[in-house]
Amino acid sequence: MSLKVDELAQQIVALGPLEQEELLERVADLNFQRGLEALSQKYRERLAAAGKLNQKADDVMAELGQIREGIAAHEYRK
């Protein structure tokens, strides 16, 4: 480990239990936000590759409705 990380670890150990818990919650929140941002970026890249990055919301909803109807027609045939 680097000296900077070791110093940080010592500071964390010196915190009280409630402060450590708060710190862990904030780290978890930041990691969650980072994960959402990465997922969002991948999704934007996927939409751009499909030529749908600037597709209007109404068009997206209409397309999803058609997909839903297609699935329902296939799954719930009489």
How does this model look, in words?
This protein is an all-alpha fold and 78 residues long. It has three helices and no strands. The longest helix is centred in the middle third of the chain and has 33 residues, at 17-49. The protein is elongated and about 65 Å long.
Number of helices: 3
* Intertermini distance: 65 Å
Q: What string, H for helix and E for strand, traces the elements in order?
A: HHH
Low-pLDDT runs of 5+ residues are none
Mind describing the biggest β-sheet? Answer: none
Note the beta-strand portion.
under 5%
**What best-fitting shape do the alpha-carbon axes yield?**
elongated
pLDDT averaged over residues: 93
Number of strands: 0
Tell me the Rg in angstroms. Answer: 23 Å
**What class, by secondary structure content?**
mainly alpha
The helicity comes to over 70%
Quick structural gist:
The protein has about 80 residues and is an all-alpha fold.
Describe the secondary structure blueprint for this structure.
Layout: H1 3-14, H2 17-49, H3 57-75
Structure keywords:
single chain; mainly alpha; 78 residues
